[in-house]
Design brief:
about 290 residues, six-stranded parallel β-sheet
């Protein structure tokens, strides 16, 4: 068993830590914005330390599950960061959804410190994480990936190696751009049905009988027709962040993205209207209210 350090015990990170502990791994953790999940992990046998540097010093594998690239960078850099405490030959993996350019820059810094940096953004939900059934989109040095693959297999049902460092984050951002664009189109479609006096379920029945049918359509229908926002447990503020990262990735590549503009405008408008903590399927209400004027 490797010594594992984990930073970022939010909803997803906490579920992953529980899964790793159930599989018998010893963990070192550090508190971030809340102590509740850290204290629960310690009660199950984890060791708590005070800084990210101490996490790295105690670990062969350092895992981060943070919300933004800026948060990852803050935990990686500086005198109390992961890089400062890195063991020789250690592997660091970012499970969050980060900017590929940031990921590649951190990869160079970790390599200079004698370690290897991987990106491994996630698919599926905290419930899947608890049972070790995540999709893990890993990229970076293949030898380092193979080294930690047995641990990744404890966390994921489908563990992919996708190429050079940053490929995982790139694919995740493209995936989330596509998903959020489809979700917004379906949300507006339901709101337009209201304006035109058409029953939402009737619209869904017709659309889902043809080639437009998708899992994302079903998730939005879960709220738009059935009133259950939890089927798409992804907050509007997080969707806005991810589509914003997609747009930034395009800008970094010196290309103009057309399709993401309306999706990002809608998500950011909903967030700024105070709907940021609502689930993405509740964008139906955003469009419906907008059409009312």
């Amino acid at each position: 068993m490797s010594d594992i350090g984990f930073i970022g015990l939010g909803l997803m990170g906490d579920a992953m830590v529980q899964c790793l502990q159930k599989c018998g791994h010893a963990l070192t953790v550090v508190a971030n914005t809340s102590r509740t999940n850290v204290e629960a992990a310690v009660a199950r046998g984890a060791t708590e330390v005070g800084t990210a540097r101490e996490v790295a010093a105690a670990s062969d594998i350092v895992m981060l599950c943070m919300g933004t690239s800026a948060q990852v960078e803050s935990r990686m850099n500086g005198p109390e960061g992961v890089i400062a405490g890195l063991r020789p030959g250690a592997v660091v993996i970012d499970f969050g959804t980060s900017l590929p350019a940031s990921t590649r820059a951190l990869g160079e810094a970790v390599a200079a410190a004698g370690g290897t940096y991987l990106d491994g953004p996630l698919g599926r939900t905290p419930a899947h994480a608890l049972d070790g059934n995540l999709n893990i989109m890993c990229s970076g040095d293949k030898a380092a990936f193979e080294k930690i693959k047995p641990v990744l297999a404890d966390l994921g049902e489908n563990v992919f190696h996708l190429g050079a460092l940053g490929s995982g984050h790139t694919i995740k951002l493209i995936n989330n751009f596509m998903g959020m664009t489809v979700a917004n189109a379906m949300a507006e479609a339901f709101a337009m049905a209201d304006v035109q006096g058409v029953d939402r379920k009737a619209l869904y029945d017709v659309m889902s009988a043809g080639p437009l049918h998708s899992g994302m359509m079903d998730f939005v229908k879960g709220y738009g027709v059935d009133g259950d926002p939890a089927q798409l447990a992804f907050a509007i503020k997080n969707a806005a962040k991810d589509v914003g990262y997609y747009a930034q990735m395009a800008k970094d590549a010196d290309v103009a993205t057309i399709m993401s503009r309306s999706t990002l405008e809608a998500l950011e408008s909903a967030r700024d209207d105070g709907r940021g903590d609502d689930m993405v399927s509740q964008m139906v209400d955003f469009y419906a209210d907008r059409f009312k004027g």
